[in-house]
Amino acid sequence: DNFKPDKTALVFNSLNALLKDKGIWLYADFVYNENEGRLWQKILLKIMYLFFTITCNIETNDIENMDPYFSAGYKKIFENRLYARFIKADVYQKSGD
Questions:
Q1: Which of 23, 37, 48, 51 has the fewest CB atoms within 10 Å, counting from its CB?
Q2: Entry pTM
């Protein structure tokens, strides 16, 4: 969620190319769903994006859904959600094609 979608694809593909078949990828990030999210989550996200835009010049201010990137070529082998589903931690294994 630091990059615009076109750059996200480039970064994902670069990392994907470096990961060996059957390799493990731990993906952890914030998740916010407008329909299910809580007000404190929305406020915290806005504060974080403002801070990191100022300090690190991140390119975006929105959380991108990364599930489509992992849907082809990866199997989710573990998932966990924390803080009222605000943080996700998923473990994927790359297929061994």
A1: 51
A2: 0.85
